[in-house]
C-alpha cells in the first residue's frame, strides 16, 4: 500500500480525502495536522497522523511517504499575509520537501483563475499565490496533477464532472467530487503532468479523467 500524505487533512475537502483513502485497498492515508489536539479525530478513524506546520520546516512529514495530496488553503479571505504564507510559501515548502523525499506523485488542489489572477480582482492575491505554487510544482521535476476546480460547494457529489485543460465557463463543483478527483489522480498513468479545470457536469469521474489524460 502506498502512503499518501494529506496536507490540509483537517479541512472540509481534506477530511473527505482522508475518508476515501481510508476505505481504499491501494492507499494508506497520513493526515498532516498543525496542532496535537487535532489528532483525536484521526486516531478514532485509525488513521496515521504527523505534526507539521506549513510555516515551518516540513521535511520530517515526508519521511516514508509515496505520494502527496495538497489540499490546504487559506480560503482567500484570511488576509494577504496568511494567504501567501499558506497557499504559496507553505505549498512550496511541501513541494521542496517532497522532492527531497523522492515522492512519486504530487496532486495539487489549486483553483480556477490561477492561470490569470488579474482577471479576478477580489481573489487576486489568493490566485497569485496558487499560481506561484502551481508553477513551482511544474518546475520541480516531480510527477504532478494540478486540479483547478470552480467554486466549491458542500452539496452531495454525484461523481459526474466536466474536465478540460481550460473551461470557458465559471461554475461550481462539490467538495465530494473534488476529493474523488484528487484521490483518483494518484493513479500513476492518470492525468500525469497535467493541469485540469473541473466543474460539475455529466461525465463520470473515471472516464473524464481517462479522457483528460490523453
UniProtKB/TrEMBL annotation:
Signal sequence interval, chain numbering: none
Superkingdom per UniProt: Bacteria
CDD domains (UniProt xref): SDR_a5
NAD(P)-binding domain ranges (all copies): 8-189
SUPFAM superfamilies, A to Z: NAD(P)-binding Rossmann-fold domains
Record's protein name: SDR family oxidoreductase
Amino acid at each position: 500500500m502506498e502512503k499518501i500524505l494529506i496536507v490540509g487533512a483537517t479541512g472540509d475537502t481534506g477530511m473527505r480525502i482522508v475518508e476515501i483513502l481510508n476505505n481504499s485497498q491501494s492507499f494508506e492515508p497520513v493526515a498532516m495536522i498543525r496542532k496535537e489536539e487535532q489528532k483525536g479525530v484521526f486516531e478514532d478513524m485509525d488513521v496515521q497522523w504527523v505534526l507539521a506546520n506549513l510555516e515551518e520546516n516540513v521535511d520530517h512529514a515526508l519521511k516514508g511517504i509515496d505520494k502527496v495530496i495538497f489540499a490546504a488553503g487559506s480560503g482567500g479571505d484570511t488576509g494577504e499575509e496568511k494567504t501567501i504564507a499558506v497557499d504559496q510559501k507553505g505549498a512550496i515548502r511541501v513541494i521542496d520537501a517532497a522532492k527531497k523525499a523522492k515522492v512519486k506523485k504530487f496532486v495539487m488542489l489549486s483553483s480556477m483563475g490561477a492561470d490569470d489572477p488579474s482577471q479576478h480582482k477580489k481573489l487576486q492575491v489568493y490566485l497569485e499565490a496558487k499560481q506561484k505554487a502551481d508553477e513551482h510544482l511544474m518546475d520541480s521535476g516531480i510527477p504532478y496533477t494540478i486540479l483547478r476546480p470552480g467554486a466549491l460547494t458542500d452539496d452531495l457529489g454525484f461523481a459526474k464532472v466536466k474536465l478540460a485543460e481550460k473551461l470557458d465557463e465559471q461554475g461550481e463543483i462539490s467538495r465530494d467530487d473534488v476529493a474523488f478527483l484528487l484521490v483518483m489522480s494518484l493513479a500513476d498513468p492518470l492525468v500525469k503532468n497535467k493541469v485540469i479545470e473541473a466543474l460539475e457536469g455529466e461525465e463520470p469521474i473515471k472516464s473524464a479523467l481517462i479522457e483528460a489524460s490523453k
